[in-house]
Each structure stands twice: as C-alpha cells, then as structure tokens.
Task: inverse folding
C-alpha cells in the first residue's frame, strides 16, 4: 500500500472572506480558452468574470463553475468593450493588473497582488489594447525559458490565478 | 500613452543550468490536455516529457515546443506504462512528486520542490494508479475553493510547473 489514496471528490478549501479578485478578458479568439479560464476562476473561488464581444462560455469545458449551486456564486458578464467596466472597477478601488508580455512589466514570481485586484487578460495574439493598457496599474508577465516562448492564454491565466490564490490562500 | 507596450516576441529568460524537471503523464484521456501540458513544459524549459499508451502530441496545440530548434531540447517519450521509467528516475536520484487530490497530500502553496524532480500527472478521472502512488515520494495538490472543485489536468499541471519555476527561476 502507498501512503496516498486518490480522492476524487475532496471537499474544497473554505474561504474566510469572499474573493475580491475579478477576472477580465479582452475579446479572445477562442471560446475554448475563455471557458478554460472560467473553469479555473470557478475553482479559485472567483465570483466575477468580465468578458467582451461575442464571448460565449462552453458548458462542457467550464463545467459547473457557473451553476447557481456554486457557493462562490461565479457570474460571467459580457460587455461590448473592456475599458468602461475596468474604469468603474478602478474607481471602486481595485488594482488593475494586466497579464502579458510587455515592456515595463514585472515578473509574476515577485509581484505582490493587492487583495482587490482585477486580473486583465489579453487577446491570444494582440494582447491588450492601448486604451486598456492606459488604465492598468501594473503589467505582470510569466518568465518563459523555451519554445514556443509564450504560454497559451488560458495557461497563463491559470498561473496568475494560482499566484494570487497562493498569496491569499483564504480569501 | 501608457507605460506599457505589448511585446509579442520578447526574448526568453536564460537558464543558468538546464532544467532538471521531468514531466511524466499517466495515460490521459485527452491528447488535447497532453499537448497543452507539452506546450507549457516547453515554455518552462523542461527537456523531457514522459507519457504513456496511445499518447500523441497535437502540433497545433503544442506549437514548436518539440522543434529541434528549441534550445531547451524538449523530447517526448512514449512508454507502455509509467512505473518502469519512474522507477529508473527514482534510482537516478529524482524526487517523484505526484499531482492530484489525494489523502496524504501536501499543498502546492508550501511544498518545497527539489531541483531534480519528476512531476507525475494523473489521469483526468482516475488520477494515479496504485503502482505509481507506491513509487512517488510526495503528492501535492492545489487548493480549490469553488465549483467544479477540480482543475482541468492541463490547468493543474500548468500551476505546478509555474510553482517549480518560481522556486528555480534560473534552472
């Protein structure tokens, strides 16, 4: 016998307070990527995902992250463009943190998130528009060491969600 | 103008030494998930991915992580079963770390990886087999806070790869 036993339905970690992390996605090329981000956000206890344009969450990928049974109460809002809701969140005291490979960025390894954060995720190819880059307080990026030299957008988002949760393990 | 400018082809971070992280995947249900793991491993500078059974990497997803041009020199090996190559790596001094929701696991947030690590990734549904669980030194898991209460396997692998690279930012 090993010391470990697979537990398929282990209970989740309780949060001491609701997550004050919002995920905001620029218009993405792939609703598969968006849906993967929604599933990861659901698992992280995120309550609000903002997306744009023709975004549509695919249930088979996002799983039951959007069910009304989710104690985190995750909701996905679709806006026409990203800048107006971001400007409102900024006025509400959120720190806006872009995630992309950019000049002027900081490494995700050493970036200290504020609790009230909006993680702003760019388009797979185009990253974040200038009007959004003007709004964000910081840009973080994930060091890459080998080809293809850029993470898939949902993979990068997962890493950033993980890092935020590591810094705020209980909300 | 913002302080940030998108850089689509930013140069990678150099490693001071080759990555001594190996990724080993149990037979996965989805070659899409496997290919996503290969792309993420490629970006992390991993040089060796071990997979099993009918595993097949999809080029459009893994991108050029497997090109001979990759300075990290990533290679994917397909084995019939996972235990024999894992046993050999263990004999070679690698620490074997399973990634799954399991009794007896440690949190990825606080787990200190050894440099010579094999990250062992379970099947989407079944996790890791008993013969593999008997071999691993540790099992780590990623806390989840909301539905669907389990990360996608490629998402979880991305988070663990990130955490390893955070601990060894230069190899």
Result:
């Amino acid at each position: 016998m090993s010391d470990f036993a697979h537990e398929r339905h282990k209970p989740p970690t309780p949060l001491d307070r609701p997550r004050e992390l919002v995920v905001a996605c620029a218009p993405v090329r792939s609703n598969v990527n968006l849906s993967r981000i929604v599933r990861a956000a659901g698992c992280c206890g995120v309550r609000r995902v903002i997306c744009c344009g023709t975004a549509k969450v695919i249930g088979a990928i996002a799983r039951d992250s959007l069910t009304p049974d989710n104690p985190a109460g995750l909701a996905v809002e679709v806006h026409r463009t990203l800048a107006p809701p971001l400007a409102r969140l900024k006025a509400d005291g959120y720190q806006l943190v872009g995630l992309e490979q950019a000049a002027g960025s900081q490494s995700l390894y050493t970036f200290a998130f504020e609790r009230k954060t909006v993680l702003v995720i760019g388009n797979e190819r185009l990253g974040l528009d200038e009007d959004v880059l003007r709004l964000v307080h910081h840009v973080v990026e994930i060091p890459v060491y080998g080809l293809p030299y850029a993470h898939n957008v949902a993979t990068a988002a997962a890493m950033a969600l993980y890092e935020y949760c590591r810094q705020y393990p209980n909300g």
In short: The mean pLDDT of chain B is 92.
